[in-house]
Amino acid sequence: MSGHFSRVFGVACVLLMCSSQAGLAEQRGQYRSKVLITPDGELDKGAELSIEELEKQISSIEQPYAKSSAGRHLARHYVEAREYGKAIEYYQTALAAQGLSDIANREMLRELAQVYLLSEDYPGAAQTLERALRIDLLPEVSDYLLLAQAYHKMSKYVAVVATLDHMEEKRLTLSTLQMRQALALYYRAGAYAQCEKLLARLLELEPDRPDNWHLLVSVYLQQNKKRQALDQLALAWEKSVPFSERDILLLADLQAVNKNPYGAAELLAEAMAQRKVKAGGDNYRKLFRFWLLAREKDKAAQALMKAVQLSDDIELYLYLARLQMEQRDWQPMHQTMLAACADQLQDKYVGRANLLLGVSQLKLGDTVAARRSFINATLVGGANARAGQWLEFMDAEPATKDEARRIVGICYGSRGKRGKVAVAPSGGSGVTAQEGANEPAAQADIQIKTVAAMRLFYVALDIPLTELDSKLRPLALRMMVHLVKAGGSADGPLQVISTEDAVEGGQPGFELVIPTRGSPTARGKYRVRQAASFKCAYLVHEGPAGELAAAGVDFARALQAAGYELTGERRVVFPETGGSTKIELQLGIK
Question: On the CB side of 563, how many CA atoms lie within 13 Å of its CA?
Fold first, then answer.
C-alpha cells in the first residue's frame, strides 16, 4: 500500500464518463470518455472537478465496463485521500457492475482487501480475499498470505493454518521472504510441524543466517523435542553460528537436561572466563547446580561461594553452608552463617539458618552457643524437628521460659531480637548468641550493608593520612570547583577511599572522592571511574576525627574475630552538613 494506490497503479487514469447535458442528442446511446493524466500522488484542480462530476453521474452510467472503470477510479482516489469508507463503497460499486475481466476483478478485490486491512475490518478483508481466490485463475502466494494474516487478526488460528497449507497443496513456489512470512504466521498459530519444514528449506537456502538456526531450536522446544533442540544448537555452535548470551545459556541448559551436566558446567565456565556470558550471581548459581549434578562437589562449592559473594542471596548462603557441612568444613561453614545472618532475615529463613549455625557452633566446640541456636530453630517452623534431634543428641538442658519466649541471636527475623556478637579472647569459635554470657567478652554490634554502585570523581593523594584533617576543607572546595567545570555535580558526601592496609600507620596511598551525577570528564589530576557495589561492615564514629584511626583498628579486629574476612578496602564518609560530627567508617568484607 506504499504511497497509497497512486504509486501502485501508475500516474495515468482512463475515465469513461456519461454526460447528460443538452446538446448530446446527436450522441444518444453513446458515452463520451475523458482521459485524465495526473502527477503521481497529486490531483490538479481540473481532476478534482472531474471527480466531483463523476460522483454525481456514476449512478446513471449503464454500460458495465464504464461503470466498473469509473467506480474503480473513484475508489483509488479516495484511498489516496485516506477516506477508506468511500473507497470501499466505490470498489463495491465497481465489482457489482461486473464490467471488467476476471484478472481485473481479482486485482480490484486485492485492492479492496488491503483497504479493509487498513480500516482494521479483518472479516471484510477475509471475505474479499476468499472471493478473489474463488476466481478461476492461477492462485498467487500473496493472496494466501494476506488471507492468513486477516484470519490471524481475527484469532482464527485453525483457518490460518488451513489457508497456508493450501499453498503446499497447490505446489506454489514461495520466495525466501514469503517463506519467512508464512513461518511467522505458522509459529503464531502453533503449527510447529509446518515450521520445521519451512526452516529446513530456509537453512538450505540461507545457511549463514543465524536466526534460522535459533528459530528451529525454538520450534523443537515448543514441541518438547529437547534432544533435537540440543543437537541443532550444538551443530550451530560447532559451525560458529553467532550466539547471544541467551543462546549459550540455553545450550548449557539443554546439555544438563539431556543428562550431560558436566558438559554444561564446562561450557558455562568457559563462556564466563571468555566473557561471552556475564560472570554474575545468577550464572554462578547455575554453574553450581551443574557441578552439583555432575557430582563435582569441590567445584560446586567454589561456584556457589562466588554466587554468594555476587548476589547476597540468603538462599545461596544456606545452600553453601549445607554443602560445607556435607564436606565437614566446619570453620568455613561457620563463617558462611555469620555472613548470612549479618542482617535481619526474612522469617522463612530463620529456622534453617539457626539450625545450620548451631551445627557449625557445635562442631567447633561452642556448645553453649549451639544450644541456643538449636533452641531458636525449634521456635519456628521448617527446621524445628531436626533442631530438636540435635538438642537431644547434645543431651542439652531444656529451654528456659525466657529462652522459649522468642528468638534471640544473630540469626533472627521480624519477631526476634538480635543478640550480641561476642569476641572471645582465645579458643572456642569466638561466637555466642546468648545474651549475658558468664565469661567476660568484648562485645560489639556488627552492622552490615551493601553500598550501591556509583560514579566517582576522585584525586589520588600522596600525603600522610595524619595531615589530611587540616587540609581536607581546602582540598574538598578545590575539588568541587573542578567537578562543576568538568560537567558534573555532587551526588553524595565527600569520602576517602583506600585499599592499602598500611593506611592505619598514616602511610600515603588513598583517594579523595565525590560521588557524582552527570558525565564529568577527567581534568588534570582529577579522574572519573565507576565504583562497583561495596559490601561492608560499618560503624558511625562521633567524636574527634583523630580518634577514628584507633576506633577503626578495634573495629577491624572485632570483625576478624567474629569470622569476617576483610577485603582491604576502606571508606571514610564525611557528614554532608557542617554541623554534624558523625563520621562513618566502612570496612569491606567478603
Answer: 25
